[in-house]
């Protein structure tokens, strides 16, 4: 068996397939004709239940989703519940399916969640690092030719005062030259877990000849793909609370319920962004153009960059144009991060493979604002209140406030 490009029907395991990106990805690959095995341990739904958070867009169970997908598309997604921390379970999956490729989304992905307290930092790093390690060993022992496509994050790099390259840096030091992994200065225990993963993956490519693509992805936005739009049972999630919601999602919801948009500090924090549909496209490009044996390929996966203040002003302007008065508030920054900095991250390699980006202003106007507006009565305002998890003192207070409140809206 070999890892092949092009129109061949591939066996692809999507890990984290119950998540925001994993579920639309599973449908997208199924629609393209690939055999898709969808794996998740449903931990994200449990963390929501424990912490009192929920998706603004109502979610259906994995059983309901795959059934509906089968009825609508006539294609089958094979659903397996498994925890990646359990090596025996991971090993069984690889032995049973012998995937050509594995797309690994299955991690704890919230920076504030990882900063709540020591236990949340430990949970994040053990879950993420051990899960990835187990996958690497299963590939080595069961399917050495399998292509690992791993979701990393742009936040691995931090905000250095030099241009950010795609994974590697050509440097000259004391008269000698080398090409080395780009220095990483991440800003949370979550982002650090991704750096640890990247180091482990790079080592496995060198030691065992694993083929890997490490995608340093920016912040993803949007909830509509051609497949999620087919039926409400196929929806994907939309987080808006201060633990799981990204700044952009929160700004859309705050505007819809008439609250000021909460820019942390000066708002000069600049990040890369991409549309959910472009995430599908990027990963499909990586799948169809696999890394070579022993190659650890790194792509910076985003299409546009914005500062937090630019995002807030964009949302406020679009809402004012629709007649909704919207204000932007600068609230004390709970995080330890630069609030104004140089940021120029390269993102050429996926464009070279043929990526054709969507743009944020179109998606906001034509999809996100409309979606949020239609669900505004599901918003529990407690989940928008400040302060959020403090990088210095933790977030037990936020956790308690969320989890112990009288629920105005129950998650479905
Ligand atoms: P998500 O939380 O919606 O989905 C992750 C899924 O993984 C969840 O369904 C969860 O139950 C599952 N999971 C977690 N640990 C697991 C384990 N040990 N075993 C099995 N399943 C497990 O997250 P998302 O927003 O879809 O992000 C997917 C990936 O992309 C993550 O690795 C994240 O770090 C990365 N990423 C996301 C964004 C973004 O903006 N959403 C940006 C950059 C990178
Ligand atoms: N921020 C605000 N106001 C808010 C919330 C956040 O100003 O109400 C600021 C934060 O301080 C930060 C910036 O917005 O400077 C981005 O924060 P975020 O919560 O939107 O995103 P982040 O914590 O970086 O994490 C998200 C995803 C994560 C992914 C990452 C990509 O949750 O899974 O890895 O984006 S990246 O930022 O490129 O690392």
Which geometry do the CA atoms define? globular
The Cα radius of gyration reads 21 Å
What about the largest sheet?
7 strands, parallel
- Overall mean pLDDT stands at 96
- Residue share in helices? 25-40%
| CATH architecture title | 3-Layer(aba) Sandwich
Strand content: 15-25%
Helix/strand-derived category reads alpha/beta
The distinct bound ligands, ions and cofactors come out as:
nicotinamide-adenine-dinucleotide, sulfoquinovose-uridine-C1,5'-diphosphate
Number of domains: 1
- Count of individual beta strands: 14
Provide an overview of this structure:
With 412 residues, the protein is an alpha/beta fold. It has a single domain, classed as Rossmann fold. The strands form four sheets. The chain has a seven-stranded parallel β-sheet with strand order 3-2-1-4-5-8-12, sandwiched between helices. A three-stranded mixed β-sheet has the order 9-11-13. It has a two-stranded antiparallel ribbon with strand order 6-7. The chain is globular, with a radius of gyration of 21 Å. The model has no long low-confidence stretch (mean pLDDT 96). Bound molecules: nicotinamide-adenine-dinucleotide and sulfoquinovose-uridine-C1,5'-diphosphate. Nicotinamide-adenine-dinucleotide binds next to helix 2, helix 6, strand 5 and strand 9.
Question: Quick recap of the structure?
Answer:
By secondary structure, the chain is of the alpha/beta class. The protein has a single domain, classed as Rossmann fold, CATH 3.40.50. It is built from 13 helices and 14 strands.
């Amino acid at each position: 068996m070999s890892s092949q490009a092009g129109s061949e029907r591939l066996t692809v395991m999507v890990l984290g397939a119950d998540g925001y990106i994993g579920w639309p990805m599973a449908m997208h690959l199924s629609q393209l004709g690939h055999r898709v095995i969808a794996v998740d341990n449903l931990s994200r739904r449990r963390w929501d239940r424990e912490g009192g958070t929920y998706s603004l867009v109502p979610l259906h169970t994995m059983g309901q989703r795959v059934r509906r997908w089968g009825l609508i598309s006539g294609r089958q997604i094979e659903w397996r519940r498994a925890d990646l921390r359990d090596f025996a379970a991971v090993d069984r999956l690889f032995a049973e399916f012998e995937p050509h490729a594995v797309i690994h989304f299955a991690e704890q992905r919230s920076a504030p969640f990882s900063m709540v307290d020591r236990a949340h930092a430990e949970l994040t790093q053990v879950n993420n690092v051990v899960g990835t390690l187990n996958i690497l060993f299963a590939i080595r022992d069961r399917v050495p030719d399998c292509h690992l496509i791993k979701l990393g994050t742009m936040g691995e790099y931090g905000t250095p005062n030099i241009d950010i390259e795609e994974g590697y840096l050509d440097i000259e030091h004391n008269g000698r030259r080398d090409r080395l992994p780009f220095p990483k200065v991440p800003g949370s225990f979550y982002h650090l877990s991704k750096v640890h993963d990247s180091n482990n993956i790079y080592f496995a490519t060198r030691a065992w000849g694993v083929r890997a693509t490490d995608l340093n992805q920016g912040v993803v936005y949007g909830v509509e793909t051609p497949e999620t739009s087919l039926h409400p049972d196929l929806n994907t999630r939309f987080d808006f609370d201060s633990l799981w919601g990204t700044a952009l999602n929160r700004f859309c919801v705050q505007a819809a319920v008439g609250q000021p948009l909460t820019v942390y500090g000066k708002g000069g924090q600049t990040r890369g962004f991409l549309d959910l549909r472009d995430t599908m496209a990027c990963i499909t490009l990586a799948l169809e153009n696999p890394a070579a044996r022993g190659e650890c390929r790194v792509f910076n996966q985003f299409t546009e960059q914005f500062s937090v203040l630019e995002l807030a002003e964009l949302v406020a302007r679009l809402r004012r144009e629709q007649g909704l008065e919207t204000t932007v508030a600068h609230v004390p920054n709970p995080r330890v991060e630069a609030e104004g900095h140089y940021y120029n991250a390269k993102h050429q390699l996926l464009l070279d493979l043929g990526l054709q980006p969507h743009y944020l202003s179109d998606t906001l106007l034509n999809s996100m604002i409309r979606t949020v507006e239609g669900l505004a009565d599901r918003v529990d305002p407690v989940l928008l209140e400040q302060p959020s998890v403090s990088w210095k003192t933790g977030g037990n207070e936020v956790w308690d406030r969320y989890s112990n409140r009288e629920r105005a809206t129950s998650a479905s």
